[in-house]
Write a structure and sequence with these properties.
The chain is of the alpha+beta class. It has helices at about 10-20, 30-35, 100-110, 125-130, 170-180, 185-190, 195-215, 245-265, 285-290, 305-315, 320-330, 365-380, 390-420; strands at about 50, 55-60, 70-75, 80-90, 110-115, 120, 140-150, 155-170, 225-230, 235-240, 270-275, 335-340, 430-440, 440-445, 450-455, 465-475, 480-490.
């Protein structure tokens, strides 16, 4: 029997970071620079900074998150309108363009979450400290305003500098269970006067926004990514992050906030970086996939028709739906960053069913958000944009590459974790669903635990979506390999 103690997960995580072109450690120059930064709210220049610390701001995130990028607050207006304010951490105030910290962040491009260890884009003193919107702390922020109408349409507002104070750090699971009727009001909500009504209002705004996007053809996809749950240095289990009502609040609020960012920059006729998902090149593959489920899609790409097909399949077969979603995601192609000059024809985001979209709401975790924040400030201050067009183009290409690299590193470590979890269960039989069947190999996802691996025996004739029984043949944790034999195929 293999000895799990010989597997150094953190060492493997660092090796994966290096393999995919990241710098896992902060250089001394960065640490020195960050340690010298001051959380002082004063400014050498007289900016128009609004004092909004009295508002009932709150954050929604994972229970262990400390790199808090956003706060939310809503106010009911006339005729059923709701004014939404989203406060975004002012990371650019601390991370100046061309500094040691900036160059390192630009190289890595993103925080990388490998389950066994997180590699933040910015040092903890910044991302979990003075630039994080931590509860009870006065912080600098960029506040995005927009109004949501009763029908779910958005009237874009403005963006401005502000001082904010987070009144409550809320957790997705607790708030989600409450909003879905599965649990009472969390103490983190009930203990603060007015917060229960505030979160209910945010949930209503989310319902409006989401309903509107779905009518426009937004794709309600659901993919399963099993993250390792650690006990000390050991992989204890694999957990799937499930969508819930609280996560939907952040998703919808940020989609609208990012749309407002594009609107503000576009009105100023300023080049920016947009986030796009192109009209699928492999639409014929999506049509064929739907046909296998006895559903006819039009020959030309149509997000509304695809959304209807996905809604039907979610209702008909929720167990297999995540794997269908994954197939559709692969056929659509990846999201990417592109430079955009106002006046050009926008590419849009096919999956979200929005035309104007970017990333600007997570500057502690993504470098593109810092870039767009700097461009925004140039507009507000009537200064020259700090990025010429050719530099934006290079950045967009590089940051798209960094995102893909982070996803590869994350997938690899999920495979390593699965191999470790299963290595003492060689010879056991599991129920599984086929998730991939192509020349490069046939792959399955176990129902419990939700680990993935390759079928190396008995794979002939298997198709995506088939329910099968597989026997575990071998694992190789350092390489992330899990091999199965198919022992029971679906009836023909």
């Amino acid at each position: 029997m293999k000895d799990r103690r010989r597997i150094d997960l953190k060492a493997l995580a660092r090796e994966a970071m290096v393999k995919y072109g990241f710098e896992p450690e902060f250089p001394r120059s960065v640490i020195t620079e960050v340690n010298a930064m001051s959380p002082d709210l004063s400014s050498p220049r007289q900016y128009d900074i609004r004092d909004m610390r009295s508002l009932l701001w709150s954050s929604l995130d994972n229970y262990d998150s400390e790199d808090l990028d956003q706060l939310e607050y809503c106010e009911v207006g006339k005729s059923g309108e709701v004014l939404v304010r989203v406060a975004i951490a002012d990371v650019d105030h601390f991370v100046k363009k061309g500094s040691h910290t900036d160059r390192h962040a630009a190289h890595n491009g993103t925080s990388v979450y490998l389950g066994v260890e997180t590699f933040p884009m910015l040092p903890d003193r910044l991302s979990k400290g003075i630039s994080s919107l931590l509860p009870g702390e006065d912080r600098r922020a960029m506040v995005v305003e927009y109004t949501v109408l009763p029908g779910g349409s958005v009237r874009n507002g403005g963006i401005y500098r502000a001082l904010v104070n987070n009144k409550a750090k809320l957790v997705y699971e607790e708030v989600g269970d409450w909003l879905e009727g599965a649990a009472p009001v969390p103490v983190s909500v009930s203990s603060i006067p007015g917060l229960e009504d505030q979160i209910r209002l945010q949930a209503e705004v989310t319902r409006r926004l989401r309903s509107r996007r779905m009518k426009e053809g937004a794709l309600d996809l659901e993919t399963l990514e099993a993250e390792p749950v650690m006990k000390g240095e050991t992989v204890h289990s694999l957990a799937i992050q499930e969508q819930n009502a609280a996560r939907q609040i952040i998703e919808e609020f940020m989609v609208a906030a990012n749309g407002t960012m594009v609107h503000v920059l576009g009105a100023a006729k300023i080049p920016m970086i947009q986030r796009v998902v192109r009209v699928p090149k492999h639409w014929d593959g999506i049509v064929e996939t739907a046909a296998a489920y006895r559903y006819t899609l039009p020959k030309e790409p149509d997000s509304k028709a695809l959304a209807k097909f996905l809604d039907r399949q979610r209702a008909a077969d929720p167990e297999r739906f995540p794997d269908l979603s994954l197939t559709i995601v692969k056929l659509m192609g990846p999201g990417e960053y592109v430079p955009f000059v106002p006046g050009d024809t926008p590419i849009g985001h096919f999956a979200l069913a929005v035309v104007d979209y970017t990333h600007s709401t997570a500057p502690n975790r993504r470098y593109v958000d810092i870039v767009n924040q700097r461009i925004l400030k140039a507009v507000l201050d009537e200064e020259a944009v700090p990025y010429p067009g050719h530099e934006l183009g290079r950045l967009a290409e590089w940051l798209s590459d960094r995102e893909k690299a982070s996803q590869k590193a994350e997938r690899f470590m999920r495979k390593v974790a699965a191999a470790l979890l299963l290595e003492r269960r060689i010879g056991e039989t599991f129920d599984a669903i086929v998730t991939g069947a192509a020349e490069k190999g046939t792959y399955v996802r176990l129902l419990d635990p939700p680990a993935e691996g390759r079928v190396v025996e008995g794979e002939r004739g298997l198709r995506v979506g088939n329910k099968v029984s597989v026997r575990l043949l071998s694992t190789d944790p350092p390489r992330g390999f899990v091999d199965f034999a198919c022992v029971k195929k679906p009836p023909r």
